[in-house]
Amino acid sequence: PIDMPFLADYPDWTAFCITVVLSIVLSVGVQESTRFNNLFTLLNLAVVAFVIVAGFIKSSTDNWHITVDNLNQTIMANEKAVRPNLGSGGFFPFGISGMLSGAATCFYGFVGFDAIATTGEETRNPQRSIPIAIVISLSVVCL
Questions:
Q1: What SS3 class is residue 61?
Q2: Torsion angle of alpha carbons 116, 120, 126, 129, nearest 10°?
Q3: What is 30-52 written as a DSSP string?
Q4: For 123-137, what is the mean pLDDT?
């Protein structure tokens, strides 16, 4: 173990190897870097496709027809649970307004991070201002 309070107990060799390999690929040239980028894009698409297929295999349409009584039984089964606001059950438990509220939160979060990334090149001290902007943006989105 590493006996420093600000370091992990053991070095992360996987992250180190990935960093070294990516550095070598980037130093070799643009064409190899483009191929590597395309390879990882295909890998990401394969993971997304796997998650979608696994979701279809393991999903149950019964979850779209949950009643308020089912929600109450589930909560009462756990004696220590505090009743959260779970909506009215079913596919849209909070209705159209709840769906639009969640979509708006995601959209404004994305717009905030996009604005931070775009204006990051124009700041005087990006190493200080970008982390502050990210924390402020996360705070606003979480509220």
A1: helix
A2: -30
A3: HHHHHHHHHHHHHHHHHHHHHHH
A4: 80
pTM (two decimals): 0.39
Residue pLDDT, tens place only, 16-65: 898 888 788 777 777 777 787 888 899 999 999 999 999 989 888 777 77
Q: How far apart are CA 107 and CA 141, in angstroms?
A: 10
Structural tokens at position 133: 């902007």
Average pLDDT over residues 65-91: 67
Instruction: Please check whether residue 87 is in contact with residue 94, taking contact to mean a CB–CB distance below 8 angstroms.
Output: yes
CA angle centred on 81, ends 77 and 87, rounded to 5°:
90
CA-CA-CA-CA torsion for 38, 40, 45, 49, nearest 10 degrees? 140
Straight-line distance from the first to the last Cα atom of the chain, in angstroms, rounded to the nearest whole number: 39
Structure tokens at 138: 């996360």
Token digits for 109?
Answer: 């979060």
Mean pLDDT (the chain, rounded) = 79
